[in-house]
Amino acid sequence: MLNPKTLQTIESYVPVLAEQGATITTRFYQILFQKHPELLNVFNKTHQVKGTQPRALAHSVYMAVKHIQSLEQILPVVELIAHKHRSLGVLPEHYPVVGENLTIAMEEVLGDAFTPELKAAWIEVYEIIANAFIEVEGKLYREAIEQPGGWAGFRNFVIDRKVKESDVITSFYLKPVDQKPIASFKPGQYVSLDLSIPGQPHNHKRQYSLSDAPHKDYYRISVKREDAREDSPAGIVSSYLHDDVQVGDVLPVSAPAGVFTLNTDNPAPLVLISGGVGLTPLMSMLEHTLEATPDRRVLFVQATINGHTHAMQERLKALSEQHSQLNTYTFYTFPTDQDRKQKKMDGEGFIQIHHLDKILSTTDIDCYLCGPTPFMSHIYQLLSQLGVAEENIHYEFFGSMEHLQKT
Ligand code: FAD
Known about the structure:
Blueprint: H1 4-35, H2 45-49, H3 52-66, H4 75-88, H5 94-110, H6 116-146, E1 154-164, E2 169-176, E3 190-195, E4 204-209, E5 219-224, H7 236-243, E6 250-254, E7 270-275, H8 279-292, E8 298-304, H9 313-322, E9 326-332, H10 337-341, E10 347-348, H11 353-359, E11 366-370, H12 373-386, E12 393-396
Parallel strand pairs: 7-8, 7-11, 8-9, 9-10, 11-12
Antiparallel strand pairs: 1-2, 1-6, 2-5, 3-4
The structure holds flavin-adenine dinucleotide (FAD).
């Protein structure tokens, strides 16, 4: 419990964090990696370069300090981060290192405004925040080990099959090298890969959603190749997986994690809306729902650029032929003439409100979105305008934890 004086001091710090948070965390990561280059094996360097990780950390620190008296209010955010941390292998001993270097960054950025009184209050508050994360993460580590087929850290999996799903997405079927059972997962969850890539100075860890139903003897991930563009280099891990990793190769994989999971108790029609490679967790939800709750109505809406990028279309066609409770809809943002001739899509351009209005026969639905952030913001706004309740719209980011523009 904080004493009233410390509480008052820390409350006065909240607006400073709102304004200067990202500057502090940008400096923090510079100091951290200079002093502890080994931590580059844990954190995603690209997210630092692009500034998304410093912004995400700044927001988390701001939220935690703001709600320091009632951290349970931000439990969903804590759990989301804790799942990611557990899949990356973040441990209790990392927290003092982060705390010490965050404090140094605050001193540097704020100068005299970071008074000894404020510094003491911040250190006390950081300990409370760190302990809250350590506790939640400890529980997740225990669960990961104790569940049947579970493990902590990384376990070696061999690539059993590599299947091209479209010009840009390829699936990898992963089986454990030890041939022992593998932990089940909730549809929507992801695994982290820990890759040592030839020519790279440190390991790269990335998350990939599991794209098939649970309870198989393999995990499937489906990866989009991030090609180089004028203003950005090719993605390190996705290019490596597509171009270099072959059947028989071994990859270290974390146990499944993540809070973007299907609510299997909700009987309302399930609406899955994907943009691009965002279809991966939704395919898992779809496959599982058709197996586990065959009476539940399901709408699967897939937006992609054109027929060349249209992944898993054969599987979706087969599923909708086999299951009368499933309706699938495809939107091509920029269809080719060939796509138009073959009438492969239900609509072209961006999904508009009249499309969703026509597709949804009720707004009493449970809806899951995954795709690029602007796509999800757009769909979220359309669903809200149609009257779908906020608590029935769930979404997953494939980058650092960001924010949806909801209005
Ligand atoms: P990176 O090297 O990390 O680069 C990412 C992007 O940043 C690229 O477009 C690159 O061009 C750009 N970039 C890099 N450096 C710069 C720079 N200096 N300036 C400007 N731009 C730059 N991906 C999937 O394909 N399938 C999934 O199912 C999937 N599930 C995910 C689930 C979760 C929960 C999360 C968090 C992410 C998921 N991702 C998924 C994304 C995945 O983790 C990787 O981020 C993605 O594969 C890109 O990694 P990369 O190493 O290839 O690219």
